[in-house]
Amino acid sequence: MKKEEILQKSREEKKDEGKEFIFNKGRKSGVIGMVIMFGILAVFNLYNDRHETTSALIAMFFGYLGSESFGIYTLTNKKMDLLKTVIGCILSISFLVLYFNGVRN
C-alpha cells in the first residue's frame, strides 16, 4: 500500500487521533479522581457510622465499573470484559437494594 493510499483512508475515517488521545487522558484523570473521592467518602461514612450512604456509594462505583466494562466488551468481545460487566452490575444492584432497604427503615 502506498503512502497516499494510507493517508486517503485515514482522512476518510474522519477520526482525529489527537482528540481521541486527549479524551482518553481526560477519562483516565476522571476515573482516578472518582476513585479518590469514593475512598474519601467511604472512609468518612464508615468512620461516622453512615452505612446506608456507603451502600449508595458502592452501588454507584460498581455501576460505573460495570458500565465501563460493557463498553469495552462491545468493542473487544472478550469473555473477561463480559464477566466484569455482569459482576459489576450484580454488585451495583445488590448494594442499591441495600441502600433502598436502609432508607425505608
From TrEMBL:
The lineage of its organism: Bacteria, Bacillati, Bacillota, Bacilli, Bacillales. Keywords: Membrane, Transmembrane, Transmembrane helix. This is Uncharacterized protein. It comes from Paenibacillus sonchi. The chain crosses the membrane at residues 29-47, 53-75, 82-100. InterPro entries: DUF6442 (IPR045620).
